[in-house]
Amino acid sequence: MSAQIVVYARWRTTAESLGSVLALAAELRRRSLEEPGCLGYELLQDDEASDIVLLERYRDRGALEAHRSAAHYRELVSERILPLLTARRVELLRPRDGGAHVEPDVTGTAEKCVARPALF
Predict the structure, then answer these.
(1) Would the pLDDT of 8 be above 80?
(2) What pTM, to 2 d.p., does this model score?
(3) Domains assigned to the chain
(4) Contact call for residues 120 and 31 (beta carbons, < 8 A)
(5) Which stretch of DSSP H or E encloses residue 52?
(6) Residue 95 DSSP symbol
(7) Residue 49: its pLDDT value, please?
(8) Contact 21/77 with Cβ under 8 angstroms?
(9) Are 39 and 57 in contact (CB under 8 A)?
C-alpha cells in the first residue's frame, strides 16, 4: 500500500490579482475535497504579502495523479490561476511516524503526542 502524500504549494501573485487567485483557489479547494483520494485541503494566506499556501493531503500517489489529471485542475490551475502567479513552489512530502507531531505540554515539563501532520 502506498503512503499518503502531502502537497505544500506556495503561490505568489500581485496585489491586483490576489482577490481573483483567492476566489479561484477556494473553488479549487471545494472541488478537490470532492475527489475520493483527497483527504484534506487547506488554503492559507500570508497577511504580509500576496502569498498563498496550499496544504493538500492525498491517500497515495495515484490519488495525487488523479487530482492533477482532473478537468477542474486543468481548468482552474493550468488555465486560470497559473497565468496570474509571479512565483510558484510545490513540494511533495510524506507524513513522518504516522503523522504524529510531538510538542511540549503547557507546563513544558512533559511531552504529549498531538495528532497532526509533521510537515516540516
Answers:
(1) yes
(2) 0.77
(3) 5-95 (3.30.70.100)
(4) no
(5) strand 51-58
(6) -
(7) 86
(8) no
(9) yes
Asked if the model's pLDDT at residue 103 lies above 70, the reply is: no
Q: Answer whether 53's CB lies under 8 Å from 8's CB.
A: yes
Distance, in Å, from the CA atom of 27 to the CA atom of 43, rounded to the nearest integer, reads: 11
pLDDT digits (tens, 9 = 90+) for 28-39: 999 999 999 999
51-58 and 5-13 beta bridge pairing: antiparallel
How does pLDDT run across 61-96, given as a tens digit for each residue? Answer: 999 999 999 999 999 999 999 999 999 999 999 988
Nearest CA-CA partner of 65 in 88, 98, 87, 92:
92
Cell numbers given for 118? 509533521
Give the C-alpha separation, 39 to 18, whole Å. 26
Q: How far apart are CA 29 and CA 56, in angstroms?
A: 9
Closest CA to 24 of 78, 76, 87: 76
